[in-house]
Amino acid sequence: MSPAAFQLTEAPRSRPVVLLVEDDDPVRELIRRALAANGFEVMAAASGEEALDLANGGHVDLLLSDVMLPRQNGFQVASQIRSASPHVRVVFMSGYFEQAAAEAADLDINSTILQKPFAMADLMLHLRAAYAASRR
Q1: SS3 per residue for 22-53
Q2: What is the pLDDT of residues 108-125, one digit of tens each?
Q3: Which range marks the domain in which residue 68 is found?
Q4: In this structure, is residue 33 part of a structural domain?
Q5: Helix orientation angle between 74-84 and 48-57, rounded to the nearest 10 degrees
Q6: CATH code of residue 121
Q7: Would 10 be classed as within a structural domain?
Q8: Which of 118, 101, 106, 35 is nearest to 67 (CA)?
Q9: pLDDT tens-place string over residues 34-60
């Protein structure tokens, strides 16, 4: 056989890829572990800048971001990621739910915002629904 017959192609992903953005280290690690245990591939970032670097360097299906981040908020990070990859679905989380919901309404952001603290089962439900919606 010729060398061309052995071309490698990228295997289809079997697990959805979540880009997790959370500046609180213990919270980020807890969520990262829960996501991995529930069948997600996770890329974790401690800041918006780090998240943008990771998004530019790899495939992302879902963005799970805290709203309150240093220097850039989660809405700004999501906007930048979605401008480059419109297929990415977003779920936000916030300990300041009312403030985040009001800002999302002002910015016309139509994404789920989970109030911290939340049950991991609720998080998984919202992420799976977002992923299913992205596959349609």
Answers
A1: CCCHHHHHHHHHHHHHCCCEEEEECCHHHHHH
A2: 677 889 999 999 999 999
A3: 15-135
A4: yes
A5: 20
A6: 3.40.50.2300
A7: no
A8: 101
A9: 999 999 999 999 999 999 999 998 899
